[in-house]
Write a structure and sequence with these properties.
By secondary structure, the chain is mainly alpha-helical. It has 15 helices and seven strands. 21% of the residues are buried.
């Protein structure tokens, strides 16, 4: 059976020795492809060599794993100083982000307060200490999702040399394939571990199925209908995956044997089985929410997509669309021509 981290990529800092090395070996045993990232210093902090990292790579390969070594120092003083500067910029950016929508404005105000509390008292010296970012990341998990997202984005920004190459492996070039030989109990384990967002929904409540997605005949674009008051649900697009996974979980209960036997009895679950199997290996392959709930707002999915393109300062105008700021602080054509362009425009602020 594949490991829990099969075909995932894990970048582990400080992985040449100690806890970092043990973490790298353990994750490799679970199927992850390991990037051993270390500054190569000796145990007393002196010197720099890639040899310790390469030794860990050799260990992983001897276990039939995949690994590579890179030299990096996440405790670099300049990077720590940049984090302090970026924390101040983020605070200013949040102050300049004001919108009419009262619900989202309340979230912005809360984020300002949480960010101020989270970054209060941070110093370059503290951020340069070993394990400082790990401790801050764990600390952020006790707060709102908005703060967690901002913290992760803030921590990534100074380490381009470490993470920029990962963009090349974000896409999955492979189509999901149905593993018909997987046993029903294995699939049940995946459902229990990854799909609580679907299996715990009460779909007997009409509110949980209040909306449906369809494609308009005129513009061939996705549209939303009200299931209990409008026609068209018979032409529903298969975006009710949460409901389908819920139904799969119910029919799978008590089943034994391979999946192909189960699907022979319940062929309507083929798509849900495929999606659940894919989710076990690809954590971001599903939006983990009920997309047909009466309270589902398409604007939330739109914000997620637009953020990948660099959009910021979202200004929702309804549940369906939002105004955005795109490219604030980006270099102009004249900057590119004069070779004076700066790549530093994360969360830009007014000059």
């Amino acid at each position: 059976m594949p490991g829990k981290l099969q075909d995932k990529v894990a970048v582990i800092t400080g992985a040449a020795r100690g806890v970092g090395r043990c973490t790298a070996l353990l994750m490799a045993q679970e199927g992850a492809k390991i990037v051993v990232a270390d500054n190569g210093s000796s145990v007393d902090g002196s010197g720099s060599s890639l040899a310790p990292s390469e030794a860990v790579v050799d260990e992983i390969k001897s276990l039939d794993g995949e690994a590579t070594a890179i030299a990096c120092d996440v405790s670099d003083w300049n990077q720590s100083k940049q984090l302090i500067d970026l924390a101040r910029r983020a605070a200013q950016h949040l102050l300049e982000w004001n919108i009419p929508d009262p619900i989202h404005q309340e979230r912005i105000v809360r984020l300002r307060e949480d960010w101020s509390t989270f970054t209060s008292g941070l110093t370059v010296k503290e951020l340069s200490e070993e394990g400082a970012l790990d401790r801050l990341l764990v600390q952020s998990t006790t707060s709102t999702e908005d703060l967690q997202e901002l913290v992760v984005s803030w921590m990534l920004e100074p380490f381009g040399d470490l993470i920029d190459g990962l963009t090349e492996c974000m896409a999955n070039p492979f189509e999901p394939t149905l593993d018909v030989l997987m046993r029903c109990d294995e699939l049940q384990c995946i459902l229990d571990e990854h799909c609580g967002y679907a299996t715990k929904v009460n779909f007997d409540d009409p509110h949980s199925t209040g909306q449906f997605w369809y494609v308009s005949e005129a513009k061939l674009e996705p549209r939303i209908g009200q299931r209990h008051s409008e026609d068209g649900a018979d032409r529903e697009s298969p975006l009710d995956i949460t409901r389908r996974i819920h139904a799969l979980n119910q029919d799978l209960s008590g089943q034994n044997g391979p999946i192909w036997q189960f699907l022979a009895l319940f062929p309507q679950h083929r798509m849900a089985v495929l999606r659940v199997q894919a989710l076990a290996q690809n954590n971001y392959s599903e939006i983990r929410d009920n997309l047909v709930d009466a309270d589902m707002a398409p604007i939330d999915m739109l914000r997620c997509k637009l953020s990948f393109f660099g959009a910021s300062k979202f200004d929702p105008k309804s549940r369906l669309w939002t105004r955005i700021t795109m490219g604030q602080g980006a270099p102009l054509a004249s900057d590119l021509e004069a070779n004076t362009a700066s790549d530093d425009w994360w969360l830009p602020v007014s000059v």
